[in-house]
Amino acid sequence: MTTIQEHDRQVLCRRLADAAFAGVGIEVGVQSGRFSGQLLRSSQVKHLHLVDCWCTHENPDGSGSETQADHDRHYKRAMAEVQKSRSRNQEVSVHRGFTADVLPGLPFGTFDWAYIDAMHTYDGCLADLEATERLIRPGGLIAGHDYEQGTEWARRVQCGVVDAVADFLKNRPNWVLEAVYEDSFRNNSYVLAHRPPGEVEA
Known about the structure:
The chain has helices at 8-16, 34-42, 68-85, 99-102, 122-133, 152-156, 161-169; strands spanning 2-5, 24-28, 47-52, 91-96, 111-116, 136-145, 175-182, 189-194. It is α/β, with parallel strands linked by helices. It has an eight-stranded mixed sheet, sandwiched between helices. The chain is globular and about 50 Å long.
């Protein structure tokens, strides 16, 4: 596993810009679409799926989420960012709904990579990892955001991403933690790489 201290999403975009991952990607958790635009501009993705409920929900600390009007504004900004950033050769599919409802309906084993930045609780993140795994082709990648624990923010939002990733990797010898990209703030990202059966070490 490699640890890289650089702006995490910039490094991640360079990783996804590899020609080997230039087919179909999915971003789970979009909000206002800032990273969606960066993915479209920086990677070579030909078809990007965007998944977000853009709706009110209860936060892990018991507080309410933003209002529905706030979420609707995020959605409009995301759509504007997509239109501004996409090229004529890039297709974008938008799925407005919860990941538990959307991901099972997508074609299994056809995605080159996924980026997860939705629920940060242990249960939510692990569920997204497990649901996303079915979508990824052999040799593909799963990346995610907020790989963080021990900070005040992580405790406040009950961030369980680090533990969810660790438990996801248990009993999955075909998946390895390839890299952690450390940011100077708290927004570390991780990359999981799938190794086809013939490449797994005994």
